[in-house]
Amino acid sequence: MGEAVDARYRNEIKYVCSERQIALIEERIRAICQKDVHAGEAELYTVRSVYLDDFDNTCFYENEDGTDPREKYRIRIYNADTGYILLESKQKKKGRTHKDSCRLTLGQCQAILDGSLSWMLAEEGNLGPDQRKLMNRFFLQYSTRPLRAKVIVEYERVPYVYQTGNVRITFDRNISGSRQIQDFLKPRLALRPVMPKGEHILEVKYDELMPDYLYNVMQLGELQQTAYSKYYTCRRFCG
User: Fold this and answer.
1) Mean model confidence pLDDT for the chain
2) From CA 193, how far away is CA 125, in angstroms rounded?
3) Are 75 and 49 in contact (CB under 8 A)?
4) Burial class, 32, CB count within 10 angstroms (exposed 0-12 / middle 13-18 / buried 19+)
């Protein structure tokens, strides 16, 4: 009897696409998928994350080696809005992914970026039981390994959702990185593109099964699946 699949984990597949391929796929799904409500009137948003790793660069090398299972931590903001800051743990197991998250205060975020987060400061904030559990687990690793901010990753995301199968389709353009950690909370920062001009990432996330109809409409069989990691690529190209 096979091992039970943890229902918290989702399938996540990625493709490297040209601008033309993305335009064709987006045209095909407009009539059957909804734009994510978080995209707003602009129909896209900017994602900015700072990833943490230890002195041995364990997360970097685990990504390079395809270690399973593995986990990494990041801080994420959208559209450079420092009023909504998330601490996230992204876990990968048997090719599937799961994400835990909790809110950070501006002071907690700045302390993590500076490498000065204390237990007293980590305890601040009105978090639920699951979010508090994540913060406690993070602080343990932050203080003992220790984890420190290593690289910033930023890109523009156009998101779609398809209710059957809980499918999320995102087009990620202009993927760039920076080692200027101190600039993470600034409205703008200097970034280095890490993909060849005209290349972008298509990500498809779903629960147990992707509907055949949607798969065929997107013609994903014509694309080559990749294990692309924005974090790993930005670490490599941004020093």
Assistant:
1) 93
2) 35
3) yes
4) middle
